[in-house]
Amino acid sequence: MRIKKVRLGGISVPLISIFLGLVVGAIIMLLSGFNPLINYLNLFSGALGTPNAIGEVFRSATPLILTALGFSIANSAGFFNVGLSGQALAGWLASVWFALSFPHLPGFILLPGSIIMGALAGAFWSGIAGFLRAYFGTSEVITTIMLNYISLYGTNAIVKGVLTSSDADSTPLVPIQARLRTPFLEKLTGNSTFHWGIVISLFMVFVIWWLMKKTTLGFEIRSVGMNEDAARYAGMSTKKTIISAMLLSGALAGLGGAMEGLGNFQNIFVNTSLPDIGFDGMSVSLLATGNPIGIIFSALLFGILKIGGLNISISSNTPSEIVNIVIASVIFFVGANYIIQYLISKIKTNHNSSKLISNSIKGGHK
Amino acid sequence: MDLMTILSTVVSTTLIYSAPLIFTSIGGSFSEHSGIVNVGLEGIMVIGAFSSIVFSLFMSKTFGWMTPWIGLFVGGIIGTLFSLIHAVATINWRTDHIISGTVLNLMAPALGIYLTKLIFDGKGQTGFISQPLASSKIPVLSKIPIIGKIFFENTSIVAYIGILVSIFSWWLLKYTRFGLRLRSAGEHPEAADSVGISVYFYRYCGVLISGFLGGIGGAIMAESITLNFSGTTIAGQGFMSLAAMIFGKWNPIGAMGAAAFFGFAQSLAIIGKYIPIIDKIPNYWFTIAPYLITIIVLVAFVGKSQAPAADGSTFIKSK
Questions:
Q1: What are residue B136's DSSP bridge partners?
Q2: How close does chain B come to A330, measured CA to CA in Å?
Q3: What 3-state class would DSSP assign to B173?
Q4: B301 part of contact set with chain A, CB < 8 Å
Q5: Which residue does chain B place closest to A337, by CA atoms?
Q6: Are the Cβ atoms of B39 and A141 closer than 8 angstroms?
Q7: pLDDT-derived band at A313, boundaries 50, 70, 90
């Protein structure tokens, strides 16, 4: 009944999944009459061919690293945080709102202040779900979904009603000293939207790695995720741990939103749907199997696929959505890693047993 | 507007907006009673919406007024095929149910828009259908004084069908041999297996039924509300249905009731400004209301959600 666990090097499942995902994409392109090889070449040259493109890849990976870290922390505690996009939006709104409210503050206060406000807003938003789960046992899947939509429509109402004077759809740009994009970086990357947020993202990767591996809180979060009852029996406060994990998760998502608000767009506008960075962050984290270092590479791959995908539809008729099909397939294979491992072990054992048989035959002849 | 008009408008918009949620949330309860968590309802709805709209655009000349009804069926069939991905992944390949459901949600809009662009020369959205699922009156019942005018005139017939489906599903799950066996797969698969029930078969049934009903739900959404297919045709209705199912405590009738409530809350956002007294409330409160009320009700009345005992588990048959 118990499955024998097949251990593979941690990285082989993601790599095989990426390969199989690209194969699925290629098959779909072949079936619809496009040339997959040329398209994939265009994809990678579009993402890595010019300094501008590379800047865009890093820019799009920046918030994904943060939302993915957020997802992985909640996931280690056994929670499924589907609310990343709502929390990111809350962070986006708070960071822009703060920056617009105090345009005369010097940069060394305004910029960190805005970023911190973004993190706090995200933490507050996910904290609601964590609190309700800890004290009322309400399913966090439902509360975070509901909070996503409250965040979306609430943010839109605030943008239209509070942040703009005449019911406009977007706010003015945040003051120059609160921007993460700088002329230096623009010059470096051929006028891309690359911004300093990448430094914050990489720093947070280190912080989260340290927190999860080296601190008591990290240990408690992982314990609660593995077995809530056992953790309580060992004397840990599960309620406190649940709420801390959700607060951290939301703070990271909020930071991701602040990257969009202060870096990518430098303002906030009326959104028709929830920002992609939430669900994409989830995929990034799944692909990296929650490993903080893996998240960096996984987010960069997503950046390459997203930015390169634009080039596919420029240089051929292939719809750029093929990239999202590839991404979905990759996540599918990450999830189905059991079958991949099973097939690999089968191939291996067949190999071994045929060796054994041939050896024994040789032995028999002696 | 007089009271009668207001009441009948509220009822009809409520029904129109709740119909997609009713079908999808009943589907969700089948899947979860068999032990498979289905967060992929959103994706299933997207595929249902896409296929019914494409069918309607190409076949409305052939089928005339029957087009939307056949379109619902087409949406259901394609939804069933799409949910097969979830079934194979979770039942045979031991994929985490939530990851697999997320894959459906990622795959459906990508595939839907990819195919839309292929079929309609690079356009990201389809044209509008000429044969929508229009509201109409129900023959005999609309003759009843007062009640007939409020509930059965100019109304959404599919919503009433949805209510009937929910009662039928409740009966099916609660009293029939099929329903009991399906639920046993979701409550205690090992016990079910020990008495010779094929857990795999019933789990497949649960997921495929959710695919069929979810596909219909998406088709209703597209054919009666948006009237075309684009990336925003299904904007969270699948998740709302999931919430309705939990809100209704996994009971098809409860899910239907919760879905009707969500429909009511959404309809207030549309017609709130015509109703005296509440027309002073800014519109965004009505937009937020359904979600806010769900959380409050969930916390205050439902408390700890009681899912089927083995919901979300992987069953591995012992050799």
A1: B155
A2: 9
A3: helix
A4: no
A5: B95
A6: yes
A7: confident
The token pair at A70 is 């957020």
Instruction: Tell me what percent of chain B is helix, strand and coil, each rounded to the nearest 5.
Output: 75, 0, 25
Closest chain A residue by Cα to residue B249 = A139
Residue found under tokens 């009681």: B306
CA B279, CA B268: separation in Å to the nearest integer?
A: 10
* B113/chain A closest Cα distance in angstroms: 7
Domain extents for chain B? Answer: 3-302
pLDDT tens string A14-69: 899 999 999 999 999 999 999 999 999 999 998 998 899 999 999 999 999 999 99
- For residue A106, the SS3 value is coil
Q: How is domain B3-302 classified at the CATH fold level? A: ABC transporter involved in vitamin B12 uptake, BtuC (1.10.3470)
Domain A52-342: top CATH class = mainly alpha
- Token digits of residue A164: 């703009």
Tens-digit pLDDT profile for residues B217-232? 999 999 999 999 998 8
Closest to A58 (Cα-Cα) out of A209, A328, A257, A259: A259
Token readout for A102 is: 């105090």
Helices (H) and strands (E) in chain B, counts: 12, 0
Q: Which of B39, B47, B23, B51 is nearest to B255 (CA)?
A: B23
Q: Give the amino acid at A180.
A: L
CB A258 within 8 A of CB A114: yes
Long-range CB pairs of A9-17, under 8 A, 24+ apart, other chains included? A10/A289, A10/A291, A10/A294, A11/A294, A13/A289, A13/A334, A13/A337, A13/A340, A13/A341, A14/A287, A14/A288, A14/A289, A14/A294, A14/A298, A14/A334, A16/A333, A16/A340, A17/A287, A17/A330, A17/A331, A17/A333, A17/A334, A17/A337, A17/A340
Q: Considering Cα of B155, then B158, then B160, then B163, what sign does the dihedral take? A: negative
Contacts with A228 from chain B: Cβ below 8 Å? none
Q: Residues B211, B79: contact at Cβ < 8 Å?
A: yes
Higher-pLDDT residue of A113, A10: A113
For A336, the closest of B93, B304, B318 (CB atoms) is B93
**Beta carbons within 10 angstroms of residue A351's beta carbon:** 10
- Residues 6 or more apart whose Cβ sits within 8 Å of residue A138: A132, B295, B298, B299, B302, B303, B304, B305
